[in-house]
Amino acid sequence: MNPDYRGEHELFVSYHTGSSPEKVLVVSLIMPLSSFALKLVSPWLLTDDTNFWLKIITEIVLLVFPLVLCLTIWNSHIIIFISSLSALCLSLILLNPSIRCLLGPRKKTYKSNSSSTQSKFVIIPVRCSSVFKTFLSSCPLFVLGFGRLVAIKALNYHEHVTEYGVHWNFFLTLGLTKVLCTISLNALPVYVHVVVPVLYQYLLSQYRMTEYLFSDERNGFLHANKEGLWSLFGYISIYVSAVQVGKLLFKPRNTLKEWIIFLGYLLLAGGMFWIFMLFSVENIEPCSRRTTNLSYVLWMIAFNLFIMAVQLAEVILTCLLRAQKLMLGPRTILMSNNEKREQYRTILVEAVSQNALLFFLVANVATGAVNMCVQTLYTSSLTAVIILVCYSSILCLGVSSLYKYSVQFKFW
Fold first, then answer.
1. Are 126 and 185 in contact (CB under 8 A)?
2. CA 24 to each of CA 18, 163, 300, 372: distance values in angstroms, whole numbers, following the listed order
3. Residue 256: which residues within 8 A CB-CB, separation 6 or more?
């Protein structure tokens, strides 16, 4: 990469305050709304005999393109887009011919159980495994981390050192967080981990650690990678909270009522953590991913609880509409009791889940290739959107091909 352009690019990505927590949450609502719209549109567009690739293209258009557009040229009209998408979903429900069943007497009642609900997010539970076994399972992440470091230095690729440090990166943080969390969860009670972000914030505030982490001091390995090393305290707190939420999520629930109650708990907990986050931002420090301070930890917990609640609400609503035969999709599966029930499966989501790490790695490499070949700072908005649409489409089609032919890459 040209040294002059590299300097311009690094300057461009530096000193940004980022979006507000509220805007990030609003943007994140696009995906579950798009997913719900897909389930409503599918009965009108697709049939059992529809070609696999036509289904994939439909899912890319309805799931991926709205998010790409809302993060680019529609960025200033997100609220309008979400409102329009919600109105479209409501219209499709009302236009369904089966809506007449609500106007007459019901001759049959329908029940939903836990097999009708699916969570569409990934929580990584920590089991009581040995530290050595956990370290072995994390080795691929360490290899990827060191490989990324070598590749960036060799290609003279631009890097934002204030993100993780001079030599550190996301893969090293992820691998080390997993190992440290396994040690701490096996050695200490869960309630002890609640103190970790509070004590870490005390260090940041009272011992001027925040000033140190925001300084330009880079002498020696520890100072050069101070953001990546010290932020581990925050990531450990987030990881432990995710493990506890995961345990509650995977608790057996046999009725739709139990899932609705759990949805209420998620919304209540998300609201409480959001209030705690606002209090922390107002009275302690603003959210900072660079330091992973208390405000950031509270924000991540609240944000993920809300997103989890929205996704669960979308699944519950789908179950209720399906029970009333207001959503008649083209894809069905036979349950164990030989009763035919509608089961909505988004192929694209399943394809990405099947090769999640590979998809992430290829996306990173593709991003680097685009940045190396195109001077993105001087690219017009239209050209940038075209590149992003082609980029996302190629990635989705590639991972769907692996899914179609049952190819799965396991790194450990």
1. yes
2. 10, 19, 11, 28
3. 111, 112, 113, 116, 117, 316, 319, 320
Tell whether pTM > 0.85: no
d(CA 259, CA 246): 14
CB 172 within 8 A of CB 143: no
Q: How far apart are CA 78 and CA 65, in angstroms?
A: 14
Residue 333 pairs with which residues in a beta bridge? 341
Tell me the average confidence (pLDDT) per consecutive run of 10 residues in the chain, 412 residues long: 71 72 88 86 74 90 90 83 78 54 35 32 42 81 90 81 86 91 84 90 91 89 91 92 89 87 94 96 91 93 93 85 62 39 69 90 89 85 92 95 89 55
CA quadruple 285, 287, 291, 297: dihedral, nearest 10 = 110
Give the Cα separation of 46 and 194 in Å (integer). Answer: 49
Amino acid identity at 347: I
Question: Which residues, 6+ apart, have CB-to-CB distance to 383 below 8 Å?
Answer: none
- What is the spatial distance between Cα 315 and Cα 128, in angstroms, rounded to a whole number? 31
Q: Tell me which H or E stretch contains 332.
A: strand 332-334
SS3 70: helix
**Rounded Cα–Cα distance for residues 42 and 64 (Å):** 16
CA-nearest of 343, 344, 347 to 335 is 343
